Amino acid sequence: MFTSNPFAALSASIPPSVMQTYIVVMIILVAAGTLFDVVHKGSAKFFFQNMRKAKGARPVGGGELVSIAVQTAVVDVLASGEFCNPRRRIAHLLGMYGFVVYVVATAVMVFNASASALWTQLWWIGGLMVCVGGYWFWFFIRVDVAAEGNSPLRLMRADLFILSLLASVTLGLVWAATGGGAGVLFGLYILATTVLFAGVPWSKFAHMFFKPAAAFEKRVSKANGSCANLPTQTRDDPAQRERHSMELLRDAPMDMGLGIKREAPRHY
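The structure corresponding to this sequence follows.
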């Protein structure tokens, strides 16, 4: 089971060219959906305008920009450094790396039916990593479940990405474990996978391309000092001072009062 290419067995029922065409169509849908998402939400326009308008205290040279890009790639992208919660970070890394391995192995096995058993093993490992990280996040780490006590079965539009991802990978593994073939499980697997890749404009799929740009822009703004132009949450701001009816809190630190909470904070 862990060394047999399930897509090779599928070729007895469906021509390999059909699955290869399907893979290409999914790639096109992801690219088109991401571009639509960027244009519709104005993400790229926002970042370019923000970088042009930012007036830093000093210019950032080319060498420093390269260093910032490397730090962004290593810390923010490869290590998911934006997550302070260790459990959330581990779950995200499992899902991210598992998904990359799973997708690459899928493409290799579809386009090369005689691919070595190593690719099949990587496909299984990647899929299981996605399931461990994804289900761990869904049932135990989600902020509305862990901190707000909502039911893990509560569904929202923002859950489209994680749910379609888990459905696609889970059905794919179950389909392969039951021998493959062009049956009902395969149809459900294709349906969930299509929703995952075709639903980019309505899900959080595009954030994997958007977040590195946001992290890079944030590091650049810190390096050139332009982040100092942002509004601050301090008592120096009259609006912050006057928004409290209690005289005591008008001159108090911003984090004063958190000790009255009866439950320890659960960070997302």
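Residues 61 and 250 are 42 Å apart (CA to CA).
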